[in-house]
């Protein structure tokens, strides 16, 4: 009887060990699958971050190029505006010069007219005597 009890005990222990081994292998297999899924998920996130970084770098380079182009255009416009202001000042100087010349000519004309009038009056006074 003892030997049968020992055999049953050993059989039961063997069955439990086999079941435990199967559970251990199943858990090991499930943990491996979990690790694979986690690594894949992490890799996809890293890949997304890398793609976003490349896009940002590309947009940054484009923005720098556009900013440099805009700076050159602004400089050109400022030079053009400065030239226009200078030309406007020169036109203003010519207008002032022309007005001054006109005023001087008017004075000379009035002076000559006055002198001619004085001369004509003195001649008529001499001939009328």
Question: What does this 3D model show about the protein?
Answer:
- The protein is mostly helical and 129 residues long.
- The radius of gyration is 55 Å and the shape is rod-shaped.
- The protein is built from one helix and no strands.
- The model has no long low-confidence stretch (mean pLDDT 90).
Helical content (DSSP H or I, runs of 4+) = over 70%
- Poorly predicted regions are none
Major β-sheet annotation: none
**Please, what is the average pLDDT?**
90
Apparent shape: rod-shaped
Beta-sheet strand percentage? under 5%
SSE class:
mainly alpha
The separation of the N and C termini measures 187 Å
Q: How many helix segments?
A: 1
**Rg, nearest Å:** 55 Å
How many DSSP E strands?
0
Q: Can you write the helix and strand succession as a string? A: H
